[in-house]
Design a protein that fits this description.
Helices cover about 45% and strands about 20% of the residues. With about 200 residues, it is α/β, with parallel strands linked by helices. The strands form two sheets. It has a five-stranded parallel sheet. Strands 4-3-6-5 form a four-stranded mixed sheet. The model has no long low-confidence stretch (mean pLDDT about 95). Bound molecules: adenosine-5'-diphosphate and guanosine-5'-monophosphate.
C-alpha cells in the first residue's frame, strides 16, 4: 500500500479554503482532514470535533503544556493548533493528510516535516476577497478589516509555497488541487518503491 503525503493548504481568510476542501473530499476518498483546535467561537453550522475542536483559552494552553500540538499559532486574536496525534498515523494508513493552516504554522510544519507539500489558495483579486468575507456574514466589519490586512501581509511571503491555486470558480480550484495531489504521487521515488515492492 502506498504511504500518504501531507499537504498544507494556506490562504486568506474567506478565500474559500473550506468550500473547496469540502468539494475535494467528495472526489477523493483518500484524504484525512486534520481537525484543528481553536479558541474562536463556532460559526453557524460548524460542529465541534468535525470542523474544529473548540476550546477555551485555558484548555488550549493546557494542550500546549501537554505537548499535544504539532504546531500552533495566533491568528487575528485567536489561537489555532494542529493536534499531532493522528497526522503520522493517517499517513501510515495510506491517507493524504490535509492541514488547513495559516503561514506561521506552515513554517513550523515545514521545519519538522521538510517533505510536506505547501499549496497557497489565492483570490482572483482583493475586492472579491472582501466581498466573500462580507457575504459570508460571520465576522464584524472590524474583524473583516483585520483579516484583510493579515491576508495582504501573508501574501507577501506566499512565494515560498510549492503551488499557487487561484480560487476563481470552485470547480476550477478543486480540479487544480486534485491534479496537484495526483501529480505528487507520481514522483519517481514513490513509483519505483511501488514497482519494487511487488
Ligand atoms: P475560508 O475557509 O478560506 O475562510 P470559506 O470556504 O468559508 O473560506 O468561503 C468564504 C465565502 O466565500 C463563503 O461564503 C463561500 O461560499 C464563498 N466562496 C468560496 N469559494 C467561492 C468562489 N469560487 N466564488 C464565489 N464565492 C466563493
Ligand atoms: P478561520 O477562523 O477562518 O476558520 O481560520 C483562520 C485561519 O486560521 C485560517 O488561515 C486557517 O487556515 C488558520 N488555521 C486553522 N487551523 C489552524 C491550525 O491548526 N494551525 C494554524 N497555524 N492555523 C490554523
Amino acid at each position: 500500500m502506498r504511504k500518504g503525503k501531507a499537504f498544507i493548504i494556506s490562504g486568506p481568510s474567506g478565500v474559500g479554503k473550506s468550500t473547496i476542501l469540502a468539494e475535494l473530499m467528495k472526489k477523493r476518498k483518500d484524504i484525512y482532514f486534520s481537525v484543528s483546535a481553536t479558541t474562536r467561537a463556532p460559526r453557524p453550522g460548524e460542529v465541534d470535533g468535525v470542523h474544529y475542536h473548540f476550546l477555551n483559552v485555558d484548555t488550549f494552553r493546557q494542550w500546549i503544556d501537554q505537548n499535544e500540538f504539532f504546531e500552533h499559532a495566533e491568528f487575528v486574536g485567536n489561537y489555532y493548533g494542529t493536534p499531532k496525534k493522528y497526522v503520522y498515523e493517517a499517513m501510515e494508513n495510506g491517507k493524504d493528510v490535509i492541514l488547513d493552516i495559516e503561514v506561521q504554522g506552515a513554517m513550523q510544519v515545514k521545519a519538522k516535516m521538510p517533505e510536506v507539500v505547501r499549496i497557497f489558495i489565492a483570490p482572483p483579486n482583493w475586492p472579491e476577497l472582501e466581498r466573500r468575507l462580507t457575504n459570508r456574514g460571520t465576522d464584524s466589519a472590524d474583524k473583516i478589516q483585520k483579516r484583510l490586512q493579515r491576508a495582504k501581509d501573508d501574501f507577501d511571503t506566499a512565494n515560498i509555497y510549492d503551488y499557487f491555486v487561484i480560487n476563481d470558480t470552485v470547480e476550477g480550484a478543486v480540479a487544480e488541487l486534485d491534479a496537484i495531489m495526483t501529480a505528487e504521487h507520481c514522483k519517481p521515488e514513490e513509483r519505483i518503491a511501488m514497482i519494487n515492492q511487488t
